[in-house]
Amino acid sequence: MRSRREFSPQTLSVLAALYEQPSRWQHGYALASTTGLKSGTLYPILIRLADRGLVEACWQEEPQPGRPRRHLYRLTADGLASATGALAASARTQPSGRPATAKGAREPSGRGVAAPAVP
Question: Which of 47, 63, 66, 87 has the greatest number of beta carbons closer than 10 A?
């Protein structure tokens, strides 16, 4: 049985997408596009991560005219630490030596997975 601290591949994908720019607020649609996850999978993951204090969420303050406000998400300091550890562990266990990251995701610019700068 999986321990409480391990993350599913889908959750790792969300963490990888948020880890790419940890201090930047991202909306769910952008995360869905990056990860390839459907909303029925993505939003429950974001809610669980927020409940665990790994992700913070807020409402968009100034939506585009004619569009509803969106929820925005970003990693907390604890989330950044958890993502760093989980992505590094995933990289060690993947046969290719690459972490199970979001579709098209890259490591944050100028930082390795093992020791990111704290925003």
Answer: 87
**Distances 105 to 13, 21, 26, 29, 62 between C-alpha atoms, Å:** 9, 10, 14, 15, 27
pLDDT at 5: 58
Laid out side by side, the sheet with 26-27 consists of 26-27, 71-75, 55-59
Cβ atoms of 54 and 75 within 8 Å: the answer is yes
Q: 9-93 — its CATH code?
A: 1.10.10.10
Token pair of 112 as six digits: 């390795």
* This prediction's pTM: 0.72
- Choose among 50, 36, 49: nearest CA to 86: 49
Give the torsion through C-alpha atoms of 30, 33, 37, 41, to 10 deg.
Answer: 20
38-48 per-position pLDDT tens digit: 999 999 999 99
